[in-house]
Automatic annotation (TrEMBL):
Biochemical pathway: Isoprenoid biosynthesis; isopentenyl diphosphate biosynthesis via DXP pathway; isopentenyl diphosphate from 1-deoxy-D-xylulose 5-phosphate: step 3/6
Family assignment from sequence similarity: Belongs to the GHMP kinase family. IspE subfamily.
Transferase as UniProt keyword: yes
Keyword annotations of the record: ATP-binding, Isoprene biosynthesis, Kinase, Nucleotide-binding, Transferase
PANTHER family reported in the protein's UniProt record: 4-DIPHOSPHOCYTIDYL-2-C-METHYL-D-ERYTHRITOL KINASE, CHLOROPLASTIC
Organism whose genome encodes this protein: Streptomyces genisteinicus
Active site: residue positions: 10, 137
Main EC class the enzyme belongs to: transferase
Annotated protein name in UniProt: 4-diphosphocytidyl-2-C-methyl-D-erythritol kinase
A Gene Ontology BP annotation from the UniProt entry: isopentenyl diphosphate biosynthetic process, methylerythritol 4-phosphate pathway
Binding-site residues for ATP, renumbered to this chain: 95-105
Domain GHMP kinase N-terminal: from-to ranges: 67-145
SUPFAM superfamilies: GHMP Kinase, C-terminal domain, Ribosomal protein S5 domain 2-like
Amino acid sequence: MSVTVRVPAKVNVQLAVGGVRPDGYHDLANVFLAVGLYDEVTVERAGSLTVTCDGPDAGQVPLDRTNLAARAAELLAARHGIAPDVHIHIAKDIPVAGGMAGGSADGAGALLACDALWGLGSSRAELLAICAELGSDVPFSLVGGAALGTGRGEHLTELEVGGTFHWVFAMADGGLSTPVVFGEFDRLTEGVAVPEPAASPALLDALRTGDTVALAGALVNDLQPAALSLRPALGATLDAGTAAGALAALVSGSGPTTAFLVKDAEAARGVAEALVASGTCRAARVAAGPAAGARVVSGG
Ligand code: C5P
């Protein structure tokens, strides 16, 4: 028997970053929107814990115990005093190290899949606690939809969304390390008083009313200057998407994927084609949000 869970990618429509905390993390006001690009995580009983992966970026995915999917199986098994003996297969469609929570998606997916495979029936609260232990963005991958993350991003308040938002994502060559991007943020803000991060009322309103133009005017990513400082070529990608008619352009999370908000599905196809033709990105994908969080699609 096997269990397959489908998990969405995310884009941060607001990423407000505070000063560095004594534990090395940053307080955030992190407004997540799940979008319809998915990884599928399949688990089945095996003699030991193993991970395989296929998909366009599969070669960049670690297959050892540092993979968040493997760590999720280990943490859940340890809580229940059982051996984490599963084979985990990841069908990967979310860019790797791209700022779209691909690794977090696999962690949330493996957790839900193992819970079903082992018949544990964990509560939502128990699963969310393990997600928070796995990483700051993992709880959101479980929940999906749209949510405000506070603390280091792991305390979630689900948000109402009044419509569908259409996006284009431009994939860059290579990844960017999240800790390195936060480190660059610290370097760029040294000696500057960083305000307390707070969710933007205009942005929350735009989500609630499903107003794409208002959302375009409210998108903000405090990590963008750091990502651009480390990867200046992303500036040309942002410019190419804007020139092609995107309503707004920003770096997704810690990057290097860039995100373009457009008015509808047809505009998305046009902007994606223009981005590829511009030669400023490796590939472009269209996706709409909000998308549902991690859910069992077969088995269980
Ligand atoms: O929580 P997670 O393991 O995904 O975070 C990866 C790294 O990103 C952390 O080690 C830290 O350097 C940085 N980070 C941060 N502040 C946050 C979330 C992540 O500085 N709120």
